[in-house]
Design goal:
alpha/beta, DNA polymerase, domain 1, 2 domains, 9 strands, 12% strand, binds S-adenosylmethionine
């Protein structure tokens, strides 16, 4: 099969034969001419498509403000002509500023597993950029198999503001919606499966591991959820949690929602599997920047950077940020989401 971008450009400048692929190729923009752009993913429900179209009519960049933007630009230090891989391109906030400088669209790649984000990126960027609508672990495997390398890689983990703000996506305890939380809506597992089918013990385990709830509270909430099944919406779930909570500074449902979201999207598994592949994708002196939003993600990055840079001259990466870069107060005023953001940067030896 010949693999091309949707605009008939191959990934690395010449046509590729994917004879050795271990996984079925699901890249959104891959097609055989004979299939006429049919793809392997199931289409999301029509109401969601319509709703997202309404949102796209607004200026999406205002809906998602990229975090630590000036810090990312300062540490990745893009230069004209350089190549860029964005593993979580979202609405292209970081990508557009970097590509404004490099102007190298043809040899750069944007990845996002969310179809709405990928569709938006297609409209936003020139047609010669490759957009991969896939989880970043699969994308990185494919790019490595192609022997692709880049001067800069950025990963800005977690969810985008449009994902959180569209109640229909089911990510938020602030908006009512179905129990969904899938970033990739062609995926089978959703929040509904976890909330309504997992055992009390499995739920408590998820709340402790991915939400860092205390074990006693995790068990209490798991019991309460199982008692109230079937639970149909994010509001129902939120009310059940509030009913078992005392006042706290953070919303009582925040940890449980974070935990379910991480489990639905296998967020930590994706990061763990992907990090060790990144040096192979970097050119010499290439820079990789990683933004995390909670301690579970940051610990994975910190430990990986420490491990991979511990062989002196032989190390694949050199750590640039001994301590993570965090947002200045000015940024927090306009973008409270940046409050928990941490940027770690390394370069390829
Ligand atoms: C914080 S947003 C990125 C925003 C982006 N940097 C910008 O400036 O617009 C995170 C994005 O990463 C995507 N994402 C999260 N985990 C992913 C994964 N494992 N594979 C691919 N995309 C992922 C989400 O769908 C979301 O759009």
């Amino acid at each position: 099969m010949i693999v091309r971008s949707k605009h008939n450009k191959s990934l690395n400048g010449h046509n590729l034969l994917w004879l050795t692929s271990r996984k079925p190729i699901k890249l959104w923009w891959i097609y055989c001419e004979s299939l006429n752009k049919n793809h392997t993913k199931t289409n999301p429900p029509q109401f969601l498509v319509e709703r997202s179209q309404t949102l796209y009519n607004k200026d999406m960049e205002k809906l998602h403000i990229p975090v630590l933007l000036s810090e990312v630009l300062a540490s990745l230090d893009p230069q004209p002509g350089e190549t860029y891989l964005d593993l979580t391109a979202g609405y292209g906030g970081h990508a557009s500023k970097i590509l404004d400088v490099t102007q190298n669209y043809k040899n750069s790649v944007l990845v996002d597993r969310d179809k709405f984000a990928a569709d938006y990126l297609e409209r936003k960027f020139p047609p010669d950029i490759a957009i991969i609508n896939e989880d970043f672990y699969s994308a990185v495997l494919q790019l490595t198999e192609c022997g692709r390398t880049f001067d800069m890689i950025l990963a800005d983990f977690g969810v985008s503001s449009p994902q959180i703000d569209m109640g229909e996506r089911g990510f938020s305890f602030k908006h009512d919606g179905p129990l969904d939380m899938r970033m990739d809506q062609s995926q089978v597992l959703s929040a509904d499966d976890i909330v309504n089918r997992y055992s009390e013990r499995e739920l408590a385990d998820i709340f402790t591991r991915f939400g860092e709830e205390k074990p006693g509270r995790a068990r209490l909430l798991a019991r309460e959820i199982v008692h109230h099944r079937p639970i149909k919406s994010t509001k129902e779930l939120t009310d059940i949690i509030i009913g078992k909570s005392r006042y706290s500074k953070t919303h009582p449902a925040a940890r449980v929602f974070q935990a379910i979201r991480i489990a639905v999207n296998d967020e930590l598994g994706e990061i763990e599997k992907t990090l060790p592949l990144l040096p192979k994708l970097l050119n010499k002196d290439g820079r990789v920047g990683i933004i995390t939003f909670h301690s579970l993600e940051d610990r994975l990055v910190k430990d990986y950077f420490k491990e991979v840079s511990s062989f002196g001259e032989e190390s694949e990466l050199k750590i640039i940020t001994k301590k993570p870069i965090v947002a200045e107060n000015q940024e927090l005023v306009i973008n409270p989401r940046a409050r928990s953001a941490k940027l770690r940067v390394a370069t390829r030896n």
